[in-house]
Amino acid sequence: MKxxxxxxxxxxxxxxxxxxxxLLISFESSGSGHFSSPDQPSTLSMIDSSSFTENTAEGWxxxxxxxxxxxxxxxxxxIFSRSIAAExxxxxxxxxxxxxxxxxxxxxxxxxxxxxxRNWLINIKPNGQCFFKLTGGPKPDGNPAVIPVQIRYKK
Length: 155
Description:
Largest sheet: 5 strands, antiparallel
Structural class: alpha+beta
Strand order of the largest sheet: 1-4-7-6-5
Oligomer: single chain
Radius of gyration: 15 Å
Number of helices: 1
Helix content: 10-25%
Number of domains: 1
Strand content: 35-45%
Shape: globular
Order of helices and strands: HEEEEEEEE
């Protein structure tokens, strides 16, 4: 029972951070609904680490990243953002970004991840590419969409 409470509290914390980060982004936005350009980084981009490179060409970004080795596994706690177009098809795999080689699995890993209202399939390739696909629940709303992810996979 205590373990369930800890996981629930951690999930609530992740959503609070995501909400606060979204609020910060909205104040930093140029008013056009887009993030700062690469030559004008936002304050939040300074939190960045080299463990994961976002696929900015498809609108992916991160608010926070916590990626570390945990024995023979990798702990992957990331709050993603994605600037979305109305026609975004979440039922297809989308490249969110690439993990550094030291965090990439030896073989392809597919992990199911459940939010309170959505289910995701996360595919991680040996070259570090991370793909996301919505498998259940409503499409993310808001622009940017906020997707908190907390998974562990075998290296």
